[in-house]
């Protein structure tokens, strides 16, 4: 089973990378997009098949290491068939 | 004065701070490895700059979960002094010893230049005691993620409690057209203190300004006073 952790910056946290991407997009003529926010994705593969256990363990990983909860939000997606 | 320097894979300013401490105390600090879980009681631990664990995940995130960290926390609860410089500051933030976060520089550039720091009105701390409020130091920065960010209530708390050690200021000898704040940090914060004043995290590198060949010795002036205060 696979857990996918999507990490995004909290609202109000400056995202200079997102701003730079937006500037480039607008230079390329993509003018309909007026805000870009970046994030990251962490993919974790597990050898166990207990969805509840994987979710619990992944949450714990997020809180202890994977996510800086001062500035970042996260959500976890479980994929049963890899 | 018993001091130690905590070294992680990817630390690269450890030698410089060791040279500085040796110059000031005439005694070499203990080298502490990130896996060390036992070391003697020390008066000061320095976490030096560098790119611990390649800045993977977030700067300082992996170093902050190293075996040595629980001992560093014990050192702090014993009332020991702790100084985190640059990546060391990022590590202290990731351990939760200091609050807030250090995010990407506003201009997205790795910034390496001299900055002017100004001592703020702080709580009693070995890192600010004996300096005049408003006293300035010319000390260089070199980082990519030094933009101090914290929710507004925390910024107010740091300000009200006198835990902002220094801010970046324009100074007299800098071109006014050059941004004096190198990274866009909130309230121009360059360094913050813990609640008991014994822990300082700072982005600038005092150990890179200890010899006139470095272009200045303000870092030495700063470190000498800190060590005097710690020795007591």
Report the C-alpha radius of gyration of chain B, rounded: 16 Å
SSE class of chain A: alpha+beta
* Count of domains of chain A: 1
Corresponding CATH architecture of chain A: 2-Layer Sandwich
User: What is the count of β-strands of chain A?
Assistant: 3
Q: Could you state the order of secondary-structure elements of chain B as H and E?
A: EHEEHEHEEEEHEEEH
State the name of the first-level CATH class of chain A: Alpha Beta
What is the CATH class name of chain B?
Alpha Beta
| Biggest sheet architecture of chain A | 3 strands, antiparallel
- Give the percentage of residues in beta strands of chain A: 25-35%
Strand order of the largest sheet of chain A: 2-1-3
Which structural class matches the secondary elements of chain B? Answer: alpha/beta
Q: Biggest interface pair, residues each?
A: A-B, 11 and 20 residues
Number of strands of chain B: 11
| First-last Cα distance of chain B | 10 Å
CATH superfamily of chain A: Phosphoribosylformylglycinamidine synthase subunit PurS
Helix content percent band of chain A: 25-40%
The coarse overall form of chain B would be globular
Low-confidence stretches of chain B: none
Q: C-alpha Rg of chain A, in Å? A: 16 Å
- What share of the residues of chain B does DSSP label as strand, in percent? 15-25%
């Amino acid at each position: 089973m696979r857990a996918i952790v999507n990490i995004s910056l909290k609202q109000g946290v400056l995202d200079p990378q997102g701003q730079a991407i937006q500037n480039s997009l607008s230079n390329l003529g993509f003018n309909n997009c007026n805000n870009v926010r970046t994030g990251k994705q962490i993919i974790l593969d597990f050898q166990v098949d207990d969805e509840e256990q994987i979710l619990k363990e992944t949450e714990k990983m997020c809180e202890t290491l994977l996510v800086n909860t001062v500035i970042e939000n996260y959500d976890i997606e479980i994929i049963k068939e890899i | 004065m018993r001091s130690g320097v905590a070294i992680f894979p990817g630390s690269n300013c450890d030698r410089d701070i060791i040279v500085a401490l040796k110059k000031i105390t005439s005694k070499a600090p203990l080298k502490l490895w990130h896996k060390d879980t036992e070391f003697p009681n020390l008066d000061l631990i320095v976490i030096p700059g560098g790119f611990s664990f390649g800045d993977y995940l977030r700067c300082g995130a992996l170093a902050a979960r190293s075996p040595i960290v629980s001992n560093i926390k014990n050192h702090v609860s014993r009332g020991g002094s702790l100084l985190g410089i640059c990546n060391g500051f990022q590590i202290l933030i990731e351990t939760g010893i200091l609050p807030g976060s250090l995010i990407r520089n506003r201009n997205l550039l790795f910034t390496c230049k001299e900055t002017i720091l100004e001592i703020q009105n702080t709580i009693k701390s070995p890192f600010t005691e004996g300096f005049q409020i408003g006293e300035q130091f010319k000390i260089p920065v070199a980082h990519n993620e030094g933009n101090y960010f914290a929710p507004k209530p925390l910024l107010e708390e740091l300000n009200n409690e006198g835990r902002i050690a220094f801010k970046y200021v324009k100074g007299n000898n800098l071109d006014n057209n050059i941004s004096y704040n190198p990274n866009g940090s909130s309230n121009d914060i360059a360094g913050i203190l813990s609640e008991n004043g014994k822990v300082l995290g700072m982005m600038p590198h005092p150990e890179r300004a200890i010899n006139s060949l470095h272009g200045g010795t303000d870092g030495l002036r700063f470190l000498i006073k800190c060590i005097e205060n710690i020795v007591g």
